[in-house]
Amino acid sequence: MIPKEVIEDIKSKIDIVDVISEYINLQRVGSYYRALCPFHPETTPSFYVHPKLQFYHCFGCGASGDVIKFVQEMEKISFYEALEKLAKRAGVDLGRYKVGGGDYRIYTTFYESVWIEYKESLKGESRVYLKDRGFSDEEIEKYGFGYSPMDSRIPHKVAKQMNVPLEKALEYGILMRSGGTLIDRFEGRITIPIRNESGKIVAFGGRIPGDGEPKYLNSPDTRYFSKSKILFMFSEAKRSIKELDFVIITEGYMDALAFHRAGVTNAVAVLGTSLTRDHLLRLGTQTKNVILCFDNDDAGIRASLKALEILDRLDFNVLVLSMEPYKDPDEFFQNEGAENLK
Fold this sequence. Notes:
Blueprint: H1 4-12, H2 16-21, E1 27-29, E2 32-35, E3 47-50, E4 55-58, E5 64-65, H3 67-75, H4 79-90, H5 102-120, H6 125-132, H7 137-142, E6 146-148, H8 154-162, H9 166-172, E7 175-178, E8 181-184, E9 189-195, E10 201-207, E11 216-218, H10 234-244, E12 247-250, H11 253-261, E13 267-269, H12 277-283, E14 289-293, H13 298-313, E15 317-320, H14 329-336, H15 338-341
Parallel strand pairs: 12-13, 12-14, 14-15
Antiparallel strand pairs: 1-2, 2-3, 3-4, 4-5, 6-9, 7-8, 9-10, 10-11
Helix pairs in contact: 3-4, 5-8, 11-14
């Protein structure tokens, strides 16, 4: 149990406005701050933050609370996990107090452990595939590529080591059912980690090195991962987005990586889904300027038109970038090189 006075000490050392501003775009109105509520859809701001009271309240849906409650709700984590996160920010050591590990910690540790095993398995043809696409050894390491072999037992091994039931690994999205058995969802695929805003691995993307369908496969939505909320490379790109005051939004992780490899480090990607309001609420904390760079095909054009509608509703400034005559930034990079993509 953590004493109440310790909790209050943590809260006293943190400004709720600073914390909430990292998640949504706040605008000052007199002695308050307001924004579009992150907890329900709306077009007129009804979410208010009170700096003096260190409290937030939404007049639209009724959501309210202190800074701990906000982080808890936004990150979908337990009270103690939110408290630990804020304690680190406040410079308060909770080591002497027993804090429950929580499912979130087990989840992220599980993904981290599987990722380490995947990286160890990236050899032979799977590594050659990446090298043939121009990835250097340094880039392979930097972006965290791995490989799940055919008939992989990596998640089973990690589950046993961590004493995690296989049904829980299924719930986490790394295992899937096939013919009455639980198999590695990403077997036979090159993998890349997908991180949340805190930099924790919460999902994987997988690509078949060669022919096969589906070519790309992402983790399914779980308690801690939602494709409609997480943007690939956002945790890595948000500093550049803030400094440059614009973001490049692409369709796939290879497209975002093409920009990063070219030194354009303010690029992100949606993950097999449309650009959403939740994506833009996150981006709006860093910039209101967007370059939209979706695929140059019928599906990409439809996705761009849909994205333009929501960007306009949320008052973003938008430019559309076409990779013509190529399909996407990755194909452009493969044919024209890094210097021409900058």
